[in-house]
Amino acid sequence: MGLFTRRGIFLNKAEGIEIDDAVLTVTEKDAVKMEWPLHRGISLWLLFAMIGLLAVLGGRVFYLSVIKGSEYRTIALRNSLRALIIPAPRGIIYDISGKPLVYNVPSMDAILIPADVPTDSAEQTVMRSNLVATFSLDESELSDIFGRLDYRSTLPILLKERLTQEETLLFLSRKQSMPGASLYKTTNRDYVDSLIFSHILGYEGKIRKEELVAYPNYLMTDSIGKQGIEKSYEAQLRGKHGFARVEVDAFGQIKKDLGVVAPVPGQDLILNVDADLQKKLFDSLQTILEKHDLKRAAAVALDPQSGAVRALVSLPSFDNNLFSGGISSEEYKKLISNPSEPLFNRVLSGEYPPGSTIKPVLAAAALAEGVVTEHTEIESRGGISIGSFFFGDWKVHGFTDIRRALAVSNDVFFYAIGGGYGNIKGLGMERMKKYEELFGYGERTGIDLVGEATGLIPDSDWKQKTIGERWYIGDDYHAAIGQGFVTATPLQILNSVAAIANGGTLYAPRIVSQIRSSDGKVTAVPSRALRQNFMDKDILRIVREGMRETVTEGTAQSLQTLPVEVAGKTGTAQFGSGRQTHGWFVSFAPYDDPKLAMIVLVEGQGEEGYNAVPVTKEVYQWYFSRSQ
After folding, report:
1. Is the peptide bond prior to 216 cis by the omega test (within 30 degrees of 0)?
2. What was the pLDDT predicted at 60?
3. Are residues 605 and 488 in the same domain?
4. How far apart are CA 245 and CA 262, in angstroms?
5. End position of a domain, from candidates 235, 267, 299
6. pLDDT at position 25, please?
7. In a shared domain, residues 21 and 140
8. Residue 179 shares a structural domain with residue 137
9. By the 8 A CB rule, do 370 and 511 touch?
10. Are residues 556 and 435 in the same domain?
11. Angle at 234 (CA atoms; ends 233, 240), nearest 5 degrees
12. How buried is 561 (Cβ within 10 angstroms: 0-12 exposed, 13-18 middle, 19+ buried)?
């Protein structure tokens, strides 16, 4: 077969095969080892172990993919797909003529997505250090944020609002070292003539943790109305957020855009407020304060035929852009420590003795109850004495009827119809309270602003419970001229006189006139009558005639030179232990067809004059000359 050997190797030339002689010469024992190198028991054990391991792995795969598959698919999808919030622009607020009173200004916030924040403590330490350095954050506040993180959440948490351009650029250069942190495009409010309109518009700001209880659908990055119209109409102004659906990697970085759902802008508000009238009233009132070195005043004007508020001023005022722009603790402390309380809305929340401005209501009550007629005359000799007590008048008026008593503000006449004197049986506190409440005293007017006070119309039960004393006739006398325990807000007083001016309808004052949706649909905000026809029209006519005589021959004769006929009522009310007084003037014009009713209050004016009357004259002169 052609076999031969070469250096110990057998060759088969015919088949071309070489066979090592080591193979041909091995023993049977060595051959067995070559065929089965491991012990059979070990091999079987390894086989069963591998089968068992495969079974465990298969079971685990089945558990994860079938039993828990839906849950983990959701988690995986959440980690890979994100809905990034696109905040809705807040609605714009306009005056009655369409002038914008606020704008939305683009801004940038820094936010944190908890799901993208590293859980390793060392990595977090580095990240927090970078956040503090980049955004000048307070370390204790940042620790509080990180201490409350839910690392499963993809909802944004606010780190810092209104970033500067420098902070924004610095973050972009360092963002790789701050996983989970990102920029959030939003808007801030920029209020026009902020000092002039702040007590009407209020302001908006970032929502606080405690506010989330009442607004659970809001995010920590959202803004919310805090005061004024911004708060009252939060639901309309807010709008609906949109979102951008994106795919992100394990570090939260966007890899693919998957579509956008556009936000729905908030609804616009068109106010009843006349911006030009608001500015004129503000400037006139501010000038009178500066002239007499006074600090506090209030004024409000409305349409008596509907309750539409045309202007509302409270002084001193404040800059609401401070709050919208993120007020510092120093600025806030300065505001709240100011003894003149600029944040306090005196028109709605100030509770003052109304003084003689309450007399038109009591005149109507006395006529309605038959205590006096329009022809009844009562003599004023400068006051009345009851036992050892003397209740003075501001001057000797002689005999006056009810019209003249209103015109010259005869206190003795109202002492008599309130508490009784001579052959006049007075109304008494119960009946005075009944009619005052009919005209809106002692209750909120229902204006569409927050923070309205109720004032106080006392009675014998109230005095006994509150002070521990019984009610005396002297209390009737004080109440009859708007002093003693009686208090009211400027808006309540004006609203009562507006009902007299329009013939007997008490309206809820209204700031907002219309609401306009983002698609242009306009919805009117109707006027709302609280009470109608609750007083005889002839009685109201007599009262109006007395108020007109206030201007023609009474305490406000300086208004006779105006281009329209005005009716009104002056008032003063003492406060504190000194002889200072608050000065009032409430009025309406034109007399025969009232288009505007207005009240002016100047706090602490002293006894030298009625500072409220000159303000009224200047505003009416401008307003009715402009209208012609």
Report:
1. no
2. 73
3. yes
4. 11
5. 267
6. 59
7. no
8. yes
9. no
10. yes
11. 125
12. exposed
CA atoms within 13 A on the CB side of 14: 3
Q: Tell me, yes or no, whether 502 and 545 share the same domain.
A: yes
Kindly state whether residues 251 and 378 are assigned to the same domain.
Answer: no
d(CA 566, CA 476): 31
Residue 47 has pLDDT above 80, yes or no: no
**Does 126 fall in a domain?**
yes
Q: Which two structure tokens, joined as six digits, stand for 273?
A: 């407020």
- Residue listed under structure tokens 């070559």: 34
Name the 3-class secondary structure at 507: strand
Examine the domain organization and report whether 210 and 314 are in the same domain.
no
Residue 72: in which H helix or E strand, if any?
Answer: helix 69-80
Number of H helices, E strands in the chain: 23, 26
pTM: predicted TM-score of the whole model, two decimal places: 0.84
What's the token pair of residue 352? 């003052």
> Which range is least confidently modeled, 63-72, 176-185, 577-586?
63-72
- Nearby residues of 473 by Cβ (< 8 Å), 6 or more positions away: 386, 419, 420
Yes or no: say if 553 and 385 are a contact pair by the CB < 8 Å rule: no
What residue type is assigned to position 307 of the chain? G
What is the Cα–Cα distance from 95 to 273, expressed in whole angstroms? 5
Helices (H), 442-489: 460-466, 473-480
For strands 9-12 and 17-20, give the pairing. antiparallel
Of 597, 549, 560, 608, nearest to 409 (Cα)? 549
Rounded to whole angstroms, the Cα distance separating 402 from 137 reads 69
φ/ψ of 453, rounded to 5, equals -90, 165
The answer to whether the Cα torsion of 381, 383, 384, 388 is positive or negative is: negative
Q: Which two tokens stand for residue 283?
A: 């400037």
Q: How many domains does the chain have?
A: 3
Residue 480 contacts residue 353 (beta carbons within 8 Å): no
DSSP 136-170: ---HHHHHHHHHT--TT--S-EEEESS--HHHHHH
Q: Are residues 348 and 397 in the same domain?
A: yes
Strand order in the sheet with 268-271: 93-94, 268-271, 512-516, 522-524
Share of the chain above pLDDT 70, in %: 87
The residue with tokens 């996983």 is 179
> Which residue, 45, 158, 46, is CA-closest to 108?
158
DSSP 8-state secondary structure symbol assigned to residue 426: -
pLDDT tens digits, residue range 456-488?
999 999 999 999 999 999 999 999 999 999 999
